Amino acid sequence: MPLRRALLLTFGLLLCTLLTTSALAQGGFGHPAGDPGLELFGGYSSYHPGGTLENKAIPNFSTGAAAQLIYPTTPFAAILADFSYHRGSGNTGYDFDFGVRLHRRIWKIIPFAEVMIGGQHLSITGYTTQTSPTYSFGAGVEYRVSERLTIRPVEVIGLNTYFNPNANQANGYNYLNGYRVQSGLVYNFLLPALPPPVATCAASPDAVDAGTPVKLAVVTKGFPPKHHVSYQYATTGGTATGEPDGATVDTASVKAGSYTVAATVHDNGRGKRRMTATCEAAFRVNEQHPPTLSLSADPGTVHPGEASTITANGSSPDGRTLTYECSASGGKLAGSGSTYTLDTAGVEPGSIAIACSVTDDRKLSAKANAVVQISEKESPQELAKVTASNFGSIGFHHDSKRPARVDNEAKGELDRFADAMAAAPDAKAIVVGYAAPADDTDPAKRPTVAAQRAVNSKDYLTRDKGVDAARIEVRTGTAEAQKVELWLVPSGATFNAEGSTAVDEAKVKAIPRKPLAQTKPAAKAKSNSKTKSGSKAKVHAKPSEEKDAAPAEAKPADAKPAAKTESRKGTASTAEKKS
After folding, report:
1. What topology does CATH give the domain 198-285?
2. If DSSP codes are grouped into helix, strand and coil, which group holds residue 411?
């Protein structure tokens, strides 16, 4: 039956169109800001049925109204629902249709076409009211007045349906091939503005030396998922080479300074539907600093056959990896890295020039030079001139109760020795202590006295005079004497230690200098008689209390004790005469 075939064809077309628009919508064909999101049409409509009943033409429905609800799914298609009402000559009709619409905007003019299926509820005077299926094809044109208002001057819709004048007759269909003409206004419910796509750029590393490439990573957000995007790059320093989702900047021959690299990302939309995002990242080309180098030789002067250590101290202000290379004008130079050894075997007296260079991984370099002097070996006679010298000695025979005590006389000599050591900071001191039978009758105990004298002398030099203890060596000698010898050993000289023994300072400790305890004064001499003046005989302190005892009238060391005498009128005592 022709109507059934038409309905099937319309349904198939509608289904294909819906699937197509759905796929397009899923493909990301969104709307830019200002495109309609939902459209509502309303206006005048007239219906011309285009059929007959019992050989009489069905009169036109000259009065009517129509409404459409349109939802765009892509920039070129939409789905719609159509409702219309018509009346005329006592007849009425209602149409309910659903379909798709295709359109194309050209400037402000929008031509469109529609395909719909639905139903018609038709009431004709003298006949039973009937509801029949319909299919329709329409076309029209619209004019976009503003973002929200569109005028539809005319739309013509071909409407196909049927009407059975005899409801009891199964095959009594009368086909109605009519049309509708309508016009009106379309109100646009605008879509909200879509957020613009965003691109983020990151340069890595952001600080490089000239010649080191910079990688630019680009991350985009907001582009429709199935849209194809393309990238463009530009840089203010070097050359940018495009890659998927990024670029590489070649910084060869780029001067030191700050630069940027920018990315512009486009999708494949057309016109105002083309979406764009831009971003940029900064990077810096470092100023290149060459390395620095210093060179030292230790020792700087050697005899033929002796070795000198060559040390190259290189440094890179930019923290680069350094490579060393050294050469010598004579001898044999062996080593690697920053340390070398110069062998002078077979080299005549003179000088050897050492040249070193340091190079970083950018081929920037620095050079330095040093000289090693080769001197003739000294003869035994000349070497003998540089020997230890006997500075002098200090005595320990004044205080038998404290035989190792450094007294004031000894301190004076040690003060002069300390001044000599200060004048020769490279010299060392040898302090040799001795002991005699007067110190102890047991020969086995005398080395202990000798060691204590040497240690006490060193203690005074270090504690009171500030001499470095490491410069002083204490020893004991075998000669019988109550003294300490002071030896000054210049740098390069040797001390003849024959006949002396080193003191174990872990066992022998210095004894602090303390005076003897104050003794009670001797009893005053009792006089059998008093002189006319009433004075008594004087009593003198013992010799051992002479230096550290409380102040008293001094007496010679060899003086004898004063004898008790009687004062005679007009004469002095015997003790007074001797004193």
Report:
1. Immunoglobulin-like (2.60.40)
2. helix
Comparing CA positions, the residue from 459, 471, 491, 468 lying closest to residue 430 is 471
Q: Domain residue spans in the chain?
A: 2-190, 198-285, 292-374, 385-502, 523-579
Per-residue model confidence as pLDDT tens digits over 211-249: 889 999 999 998 887 788 889 999 999 999 887 778 999
Say how far apart CA 491 and CA 326 lie, in whole Å. 32
End-to-end CA distance of the chain: 173
- How far apart (Å, rounded) are the C-alpha atoms in residues 363 and 370? 23
Looking at this protein, which amino acid is placed at residue 186? Answer: V
* Interval 181-216: pLDDT, tens: 999 999 988 666 668 899 999 999 999 988 889 999
Quote the Cα angle for 548-553-559, to 5°: 90
Residue the block writes with tokens 């798709």: 100
User: Count H helices, E strands: the chain?
Assistant: 5, 31
User: CB burial class (10 A; 0-12, 13-18, 19+) of residue 389?
Assistant: middle
Q: Residue 184: which residues within 8 A CB-CB, separation 6 or more?
A: 41, 42, 43, 44, 66, 152
Residue whose pair of structure tokens reads 């410069």 in the numeric block: 471
From residue 335, give the alpha-carbon distance in Å to each of 65, 165, 330: 106, 120, 15
